[in-house]
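Q: Could you write out the predicted structure for this multi-component system? I'm mainly interested in how the pieces pack against one another.
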Amino acid sequence: MEPVIELDGLEVRLGSRTILKQLKASFSGRAIGLLGPNGAGKSTLLNTLLGFHKPSAGTARILGRDVRTHAREVRSLIGYMPENDSFIAKMSGVRFVRLMAELAGLPPEHALERAHEAFFYVGLGEVRYRQLGTYSLGMKQAAKLAQAIAHGPKLLFLDEPTNGLDPPARTRMIQLIQEIRARGDLHLIVSSHLLRDVEECCDEVLILKDGKIAAFCNLEEERRSNRRFLEIETRGATNGNFIEAIEKLGCETATGAQGRLKLILPDGLELRQLYQVADEQNVQIRRLNHKRDSLEDIFLKAMESADGRI
Amino acid sequence: MAVYKKTYRPYEGELTGSFRRLLVMPRYAFEDLHRSRFLTIFFLASFIYPLICALMIYVVHNTSALALLGVQGGERLISVDVGFFLRLLGWQSMLALFLSAFIGPGLVSPDLANNALALYLARPFSRWEYVIGKMSVLLILLSLMTWVPGLLLFGLQGYLQGWQWTHDNFRLAWASFTAAWIWILVLSLLALALSAWVKWKPAAGALMFGVFFVAAGFGATINGVQRTTWGNIFNIFYLIGSVWVQLFEGSNNTTNGAVFFRANQGEVLPMWCSWFGLAMLCGICLYMLARKIRGMEVVR
């Protein structure tokens, strides 16, 4: 599979400060999350990929095109939804999106058609003729998404897409992002402070800290591998016999407080077999959780680890 | 994708070339300008003077019209010479200054004030293409106000007067064209640079006038206090006027410039100073644009 983004010793200096330090990675996921505390370099990385900042060393490639030498070609593949308000206040929504689509290279008639479609898609169909300056914050976010997708990019950069949204608007935005991802026509890069947003939208996560890669993980694989970790809570007869019985099934066990058991299941073991054993031992399984490292755990570990790697 | 389906689909149609993309911005800007009744009327009114000139050239060469008006010695009514073209250029250039002060700030400052530059430049579009695209609006409008009427009047006079006149006075056509372009370039760069710098339309318009009139006053003050002529280097009207005189007449000047753009006797600076002053002004504007027209402003 062709990598979506390759970072090849990428270093970016702004003034006397080195913001991104020798980043080296390759991503090929459908949706890639960018996480990191404030000042970690997330926005600088996006801006460098867009060609707004010149790398001081190394380079990056987007879908095989070098951002240093093929900046124009790279930008023709990208849709960008910036973090801050970016629009022309006295322009109607649909006219603005049409302008942006035409600048991306769409002929005027196609640009107009797709501007209308994009507005309906993001749920602003009824207000598309209103001036952008009169939109609420949630509507502005949706309008920014509309201009980012109107020209049908191959790669979509979403910088803090749920910034300032109330819970229903946030849910709607996440749904839109998930829908776009599910269609499989384009790749997504989602930069966010919100771990939940990234967890819900992305299948790969890059965590930055002080301009360096602190962690990179494939959430899908994480989810798959962590399905084998279980935490159960039991009530009933002697727990010791139950533990012995499930260890015979090949499980590794660790006893927690208040009748809780942590298990690592062997390959091929069905949950049904656990319930059968519990029944035989006269034990009730009151609660069963697939325990795994949440993105929050991964993030915190990355922030704590001394060498920046997990 | 039909609107009712409300789903996302990629675009697989044809794409326009980079030159056509460059024309998108002027097209949208002209649509916006057309909505302003004041600007439309002002622009149309700027053609009154060239129309009167055209009418006079026609009447002077039309014996039956002169007879009808009862005018004797019609050829003395108007003389189409260096003074005629400099006057025309002076009037039209002053109107061009007003028009660029009204229009120029509205081209760039809304984009900067609303952080829209990141969206423009996230597309296959360079910073200089952005500047050229925006500037082309002024280049087209100011051309229509300045050198286009000048050349049309030159053509009309040449047509009515004959080939010999055209041949003998070809320098006037060339000078009108070049002189107007220098002025257009200065105005356009200044309008864009100031509006990029202050990001606020009314302030940028006011600053535009300030650069011309306050700087001229400052130059005059220096001249008065220091008893020198070097203060003229701050007077853009003087710089342009002296360059125009050189373009129209070379070193054998019979005029001291155009209306509003005079290089008065006794206050003359070496010619290279005028050229250098204008080049510096353009250079500063380009530097200001290079600093401000960026996808992302870096706070150091």
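A: Regarding packing and overall arrangement: The radius of gyration of chain B is 23 Å.
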